[in-house]
Amino acid sequence: MTTVRCFSGVRPTGPLHLGNYFGALRNWVAIQATHECLFAVADWHSLTTEYADPSQLHRWSRDVVLDWLGAGIDPERSIIFLQSDVVEHAELHLLLSMITPLGWLERVPTYKELKTQLTTKDLNMYGFLGYPVLQTADIILYKAERVPVGEDQVSHIELCREIVRRFHHLYHCDIFPEPQPLLTTAPRVPGLDRRKMSKSYDNTITLHEGPDAVQKKIMPAVTDPARKRRQDPGNPDVCLIYDYHKLMSNAERQAFVNIECRRAGIGCVDCKKWLLEGMDAVLAPIRERRALWAARPDDVDALLADGARRARAIACETMREVRDAMGLARSVTRGRP
User: Fold this and answer.
1) 5-189+297-326 maps to which CATH number?
2) Which candidate, 308, 289, 321, 236, places its Cα nearest to that of 39?
């Protein structure tokens, strides 16, 4: 039976956090058992917003790889690599950009949304407008059939399919499968200020933070704002701490907190201490695996080099088919396999 190929990536813009873990990483770890997976650190994508100062990009990329390994992405089962180590991403992006109508990019929902949110950056650049084209190149370069995404990214996958159909129509070929979203049941993880957990909002709990650092963030966090005194009944439905319990505490602990909070049987301090136990049960194994890899930088370099070699073998064959379909002469100076 043929294994379905799956591709996904992450922009390295800082350490990964609980939102990244519950929104994507936990699912990636699971699908390694059922899919042929390629996971790319999308360092070129980071330049769409971090173009003015890319000096931290190498460190951020390294952090992402360590976080992936800590979370359980297995280089024996998945191909892990840096996007910039496979130059065919840039070549296919260039060719696709020649055939993608401007209007298709301007209607992408996240384009206007991010321009509104990231007001401190000048995003009036082609790279920002055209990042869905690079995203399409990332996916179809490996002929991926599935892309694990949340519902907010479905429109990007639809645009990817439109570009694929246009390429096939223009060049009378059938090279790429039309990728489908592999929808994940990703819970919304609130940040410490109740907005979406995001590095941009400085409201995160990162995957590599130790117990003391996590405690310093959790203990002052706001619970039910209407609960003024210990003897007042609380409402877990509006409480950030209970949101975290639902993600990281077992069912018995969740039920106990839910009942006892409503009848003022427990206080917020105890509730937070129990949460910290559940959080450490999730984060401690990630931290431990991450630390083991961080202590072996040569092994990390080796797995990335091997990942790039394996990814590039696929990418080179795809680009041979693309150039043939477009009637582009192959240069003898390219030095490709």
Assistant:
1) 3.40.50.620
2) 308
